[in-house]
Amino acid sequence: MKTGSRSETRSGIAVLDPDGIIRPLDSGYPGEALPANSDEGREVYRRGLVLALELACRRAFPRAKLWVEHAVSLGYRCRLEGKNLPGQQEVVDRIREALSEVVAAALPLKHRILTAEEALELDGEPGRLARWHKGGGEYHLNSLGNCIAFAMGPGVPDTSWLTRWELRPSGGSFLLRFPGSSNWPSISPWHERKKLGRELDLEERHLRVMKTRTVDALNRRIRQDGGRELVMMCHFYQNSRMVEIVNQVSDQFPRKRVVMVAGPSSSGKTTFTRMLSTYLGARGFRVRMISADDYFKDRDETPKNPDGTYDFESLDALETGLLGEHLKALLAGREVRLPRFDFHAGIREDDVDPISLGDNDVLLIEGIHGLNPALTPGLDRDTKYLVYISALTTLNIDRLTRMSTSDGRLLRRMVRDSFSRGYTAAQTIAGWPSVKRGERRFIFPFQEEADLMFNSSLPYELAALKPYAEPLLAEVPKGSLQFHTASRLLRLLACVEPIRESVIPKLSIIREFIDGLLLDWEDQ
User: What is the DSSP letter of 509?
Assistant: First the structure.
């Protein structure tokens, strides 16, 4: 559906109050108007759209249940679960008609702030999640009639704002699509990402097997035995995926001798690469590693962002020609001397570390640009095995509220930044928009180039990160630009049962983010 919208004609879609909290536009709070095309503005729009979709599904199929699953290509993959449903095209057609009627009716959405005591009085699914809420803080809900969802923030004032959306069938489910960031309020053309979709589908099935589709279900599993069985099952599954990669690398060796590992921030690239090296070593290979970071240009040649800061995530910040020459020479059987970059001085020293490849050597390279062919000019694609790693969480907070993969990686990075760099949570949150822009420019466009994807997320990782993240988030000052993000993440973590650190395996990828133990062990 594409028509004019209030979100296009008004100056804002919500209000950022003086404390740094995003409030509903009609709440009466003073503050700065939040544009619809901002990161948080788009989330306000999407939260309202999901509740409108829930009401539409109830009207079209009263006995079915809507699940809002993972995000894909500026949309949410949704599933209608119930008996005797018609074909998927008819399902979509009937929901589309009902959703159009909901939007035209201009039905009011409410953002409710409850005390901990009031939250305990909720019934049904909202009540089950609220019963885990601890700490006595506020509990936020969004509602549209009798449709209720946990609120990471407010929605739009009423459904008449929700005029930009698309529905399309997708296998046994359907997609709800909406405007993105770069061309708001237009909806970008649909581009199917089959490999990413397959990985997300695998994770959805994995969570159903683990019986941890929602935070409530996760908490119940943790309460049973401290999470021990869940943790063991998750790591058995993740190890099996690692073995799958090792088998494929082995099968394609020596034709594909170079293994490139890439992924967005806080996906666990460093730990994954070291683990992959160990697995390959156990298979009989000798692994030689090259860090793409050692090919950074000197600081005075580094490109800059519009605000004058260095753009270290740009491919132009790397001496790609030199890396390509070195790889071609190594594959031709010649020795090269690798560079070493001094990050404190901002200078690259060339011709430092000698390296050559033996008959049974695999060359492992990790970096955010690993899937981009421009990183290795002149190198034949058939010589490279490309691995994409990301933390593709598909855990739902409740049936209608998905856990953002970006929020999951932000929590990982925040905790790691605290012990490894001494950063505050406010500093990590402040830098996150720049990180996300770099990912959209340099990483996500190349996802489908991967030969295989590896999902580093763990269904229990919110419970593992909670004891470390909560104190950091609590220190973000009220009134700062980072306070809204901190407060909404705190509200989420308040609903999560923690897992004790002793339950988490020493070789878990999540160790990179909670204590760096795996990396320390590797360096000894």
Answer: T
Query: How many domains does the chain divide into?
Result: 2
CA distance 326 to 291: 12
Comparing CA positions, the residue from 513, 462, 4 lying closest to residue 234 is: 462
Residue 461 CB burial class (10 angstroms; 0-12, 13-18, ≥19):
buried
Q: Is the residue at 202 inside a domain?
A: no
Domain end, chosen from 192, 220, 251, is at: 192
The pLDDT score that the predictor gives to residue 6 is 59
* pLDDT (0 to 100) of residue 10: 60
The span from the CA of 296 to the CA of 504, in Å, is: 36
So what's the pLDDT on residue 523?
Answer: 46
- Whether the CB-CB separation of 39 and 181 falls below 8 Å is answered with yes
Q: Could you report the per-residue pLDDT of 210-238, keeping only the tens digit for each?
A: 999 999 999 999 999 999 999 999 999 99
Q: Please work out, in degrees rounded to the nearest 5, the angle formed at the alpha carbon of residue 56 by the alpha carbons of 42 and 167.
A: 60
CA distance 66 to 435: 33
pLDDT at res. 310: 84
Instruction: List per-block mean pLDDT (blocks of 10 residues) for the chain, which spans 524 residues.
Output: 54 90 90 90 96 98 95 89 93 97 98 89 90 84 96 96 95 90 83 88 90 95 96 93 94 94 91 93 94 92 85 90 96 95 91 94 92 93 95 93 94 94 95 87 92 94 96 96 94 95 91 77 45
| Same structural domain, 234 and 153 | no
Amino acid at 324: G
CB atoms within 10 A of CB 436: 18
Same domain (yes/no): 132, 264: no
CA distance 151 to 397: 10
Tokens of 319: 């001496």
DSSP code for 138: -
The one-letter amino acid at 395: L
| Residue 178 structural domain | 6-192
The radius of gyration of the chain from alpha carbons, rounded to an integer in Å, stands at: 24
Q: Is 186 in the same domain as 212?
A: no
**The three-state (H, E, C) secondary structure of 385-434, written as one string:** EEEEEECCCCCEEECCEECCHHHHHHHHHHHHHHHHHCCCHHHHHHHHHH
358 and 441 share one domain: yes
CATH code of the domain in which 497 resides = 3.40.50.300
Residues 238 and 371 in one domain: yes
